[in-house]
Amino acid sequence: MALHTPLVAIAATSAAVLALTGSTASALTPAPTPVPRPTTTSSDEGRVPAQDRQFLTQAHQGNLTEIAAGKAAQSKGKANAVRSIGAMLVTDHTKLDKKLQQVAQRLKVTLPEQPTARQQTKAKELDALSGTEFDKAWTKTMIYSHRAALAAIKKEIADGSAPQVKALAKAARPIVQDHLDRLLAAEKALGALSPDRPPAILTVSLPRMVAG
Fold first, then answer.
1. What count of other Cβ atoms lies within 10 Å of the Cβ of residue 29?
2. Are the C-beta atoms of residues 136 and 67 closer than 8 Å to each other?
3. What is the distance between the alpha carbons of residues 48 and 43, in angstroms, rounded to a whole number?
4. Tens of pLDDT along the chain (212 residues)?
5. pTM of the model
6. Nearest to 119, CA basis, from 139, 101, 144
């Protein structure tokens, strides 16, 4: 769940992710997901505490980012680990987002249809890379997004009020942590592949993480 801020340090990731054009871009950027649009008024959403609404929004955009990034890794990744983790992101974040959308619909919280502008920009930057450079940049971006997601999860568990939303955060935590552990291992392996200077994307400052 990039659960954004970060495809964290995915995407992500937030995640990731974005309305791009072009055949390759489509792999990185999902078309707007048909999110259930419940009939709602400002007073309806006002009954859900701000922290819970914020988490639902961030987590949903993070899921969209991670799903798109996972598909990109499957099609563009060079290392087996990158392609494998990419497939895992698609499967896990699709399941997480399905449950999240169900909760949002029950609570009458309207979700955004695409990732944040920052997540979309990051996807464009990744789209310009290929080979080992893509693998390294993708892994770094996903590490950031998953760290951001964990920070958002921690905040929701501590400060959230809606039981259903807190339950989502608790269920997502071990999954996101597992993704992060695998990404960190992949990053270490990729670093040993080549001593080449990392691409510029790896030195670009990333947005600040959600306060934990």
1. 28
2. no
3. 9
4. 444 434 333 343 343 333 333 333 444 555 555 555 444 444 455 689 999 999 999 999 999 999 999 999 999 999 999 999 999 999 999 999 999 999 999 999 999 999 999 999 999 999 999 999 999 999 999 999 999 999 999 999 999 999 999 999 999 999 999 999 999 999 999 986 554 444 444 433 333 434 33
5. 0.71
6. 144
C-alpha 33/C-alpha 136 separation (Å) is: 28
What's the chain's Rg over C-alpha atoms?
16
**What's at 207, amino acid-wise?**
P
> Alpha-carbon torsion 84, 89, 94, 103, what sign?
positive
Pairwise CA distance, residues 5 & 101, whole Å: 20
29 touches 120 (CB < 8 A): yes
